[in-house]
Amino acid sequence: MLPLVASRRDDLVALFDFGWQRFATRMDGLTDDEWRWTPTADDRVSLRWRLAHITAFLTEDRNWPWLGLPPARWEAPEPESAEEAITTLGEAYVAWCGALSLTTEESLAERIGDVAGRYGTDSRYAFALHIVDELIHHTAEAALLRDLHAGRAA
């Protein structure tokens, strides 16, 4: 259960942290074999792709301006192992949370503006909700892939 918090921004941060901790616990001890395993011919159905995708959307160049913050560029080398992928993803999560922590109740209530093109009339709060939705559903997919790997026929 999420703790009672004082603001919508704090609620967002708590929700991100709750989802992240649940994911981090599920990925504890991830092996290179699990990370590289692709159950179908489609590489997008793999933990490797899924973790890279989560890293990418947490650190997209648009994130900072869409939150009303100065642009920031975040780059990381391509991971070569499960451990590197988890480390890089953790750093991406910290970068996203750092940006979110710089917002205020007032700034989250504002429209994103022209920088977001067709999404410009959406609020920054709605954008943050979109990112938490992405985080939760892609981390759930990663957990399922890990379960499928564990249950595959030997």
Tell me what you see in this structure.
There is one protein chain. The protein is mostly helical and 154 residues long. The model has no long low-confidence stretch (mean pLDDT 94). It is globular. It has helices spanning 8-27, 32-36, 47-58, 63-66, 82-101, 105-109, 124-151. The protein has a single domain, classed as dinb family like domain (Four Helix Bundle (Hemerythrin (Met), subunit A), Up-down Bundle), CATH 1.20.120.450. Helix content is 61%, strand content 0%.
**Uncertain stretches of 5 or more adjacent residues:** none
Structural class: mainly alpha
* CATH-assigned fold name: Four Helix Bundle (Hemerythrin (Met), subunit A)
Q: Can you give the mean pLDDT?
A: 94
Q: How far apart are the termini?
A: 38 Å
User: Which CATH-level-2 architecture?
Assistant: Up-down Bundle
Summarize it:
The chain has about 150 residues and is mainly alpha-helical. The protein has a single domain, classed as Up-down Bundle (Four Helix Bundle (Hemerythrin (Met), subunit A)). About 60% of the residues lie in helices and about 0% in strands.
Write the layout of secondary structure elements.
Blueprint lengths: L7 H20 L4 H5 L10 H12 L4 H4 L15 H20 L3 H5 L14 H28 L3
Helix pairs in contact: 1-5, 1-7, 3-5, 3-7
